[in-house]
Amino acid sequence: MGTFIQLLIDGLSTGSIYAALALAIVLVHQATGMVNFAQGAMAVLSGYIAFTFLGFGVPLILAILITVVISFFVGAIVERVLIRKFEQGNPDTAVVVTIGLLTLITGICAWLWSYNNQLFPSLFPNQTIALLGASVSVRSLGTIIVILAIMGLLQLMFVGTKLGLALRAVSINQQSAAFAGMPVGRLLMVGWGLAAALGAVAGVLVAPQLTLTPGMMDTALVYALAAVILGGLTSPVGVVVAAALIGVLENLAAVYVPFIGHDLKVAVPFILIFVVLVVRPQGLFGRKTVVRV
Fold first, then answer.
1. Which residues are registered as beta bridge partners of 5?
2. Three state DSSP letters for 38-73
3. Which among 105, 160, 204, 246 is least buried, having the fewest CB atoms inside 10 angstroms?
4. Residues 1, 123: Cα–Cα separation, whole Å
């Protein structure tokens, strides 16, 4: 039983890393209708910005807050200068642009800070507590709690605020939103800015666990996209649940399913994606799109 609890908690901790990035992807999609493949690289850039402030002796909390604000403006500028030129065009072109942006940001991070692993301090103490026979990291618990709080705030914003409703309206139909008097351009910038700020939070939460490198988020991005597909692009709650499910099932399968083991556990999320897409193409919590013809 202790082993099972340990695997469960470790899976939730790993899933929280995927969830942090998946929430930022959902936020961009809810605001613009796009899937941002550069979200992981933007989170890494934010991590390096915070790391630079720490090098100047800025306290950790203050460095993170400053980084979140800077990341908001970086995301807004990226949308205004680069992404806006492709938002009304072919969706495939926009996807390629975000992949190119991922490569560019990763290269910039490597150029400025090198590929060496950098130790990043954690917001939470590096201690463990005993829980039902398992050893639980305080840092992991803190990360899970922060992600759940962000999920709740995002869900509240999209459902219960004028900003959230406006962002959803713009993502569904920009022309109709413009005719209704909404400032579409500013809303798109705000959407990307908020996603970049959320990515900054993800970056500073993940960096202490993975160590800070330009490619820190590459693997996490794959799992985050899997969580987005499983949970649904329209549901912050859904992607967090899906990310937790991926983390837990991956751990359990590696130990309790002999033919999978640790070598093939990476296949678990893709098997889940296949099953979900066959049964429920919009994702576990996503809304089915109805098109009038």
1. none
2. CHHHHHHHHHHHHHHHHHCCCCHHHHHHHHHHHHHH
3. 160
4. 30
- Residues 114-137: pLDDT tens digits? 888 888 888 888 777 777 667 777
Q: What b/e readout covers 77-102, taking b as 16+ CB neighbours within 10 angstroms?
A: ebbbebbeebbeeeeeebeebbeebb
Q: pLDDT, tens digit, for every residue of 80-116? A: 888 887 766 666 787 888 888 999 999 999 999 988 8
- CB within 8 Å of 261: residues ≥ 6 apart: 254
Q: Specify the DSSP element, H or E, that contains 129.
A: strand 128-131
Phi, psi of 137 (to 5 degrees): -75, 130
Of 185, 154, 190, 157, nearest to 73 (Cα)?
A: 190
DSSP secondary structure of 210-255: H-B-TTTTHHHHHHHHHHHHHH-TT-HHHHHHHHHHHHHHHHHHHH
Q: How far apart are CA 35 and CA 195, in angstroms?
A: 11
Burial 207-219 (b: 16+ CB within 10 A, else e): bbbbebbbebbee
At a CB cut-off of 8 Å and minimum separation 6, what does 117 contact? 211, 212, 213
Environment class of residue 5 by beta-carbon count within 10 Å: exposed (0-12), middle (13-18) or buried (19+)?
A: middle
> CA torsion angle for 132, 134, 135, 138 (degrees, to 10)?
-50
How many Å apart are CA 275 and CA 289, to the nearest integer? 20
Rounded Cα–Cα distance for residues 188 and 182 (Å): 11
Domain ranges of the chain: 19-214
Give the 3-state secondary structure of residue 135. Answer: strand
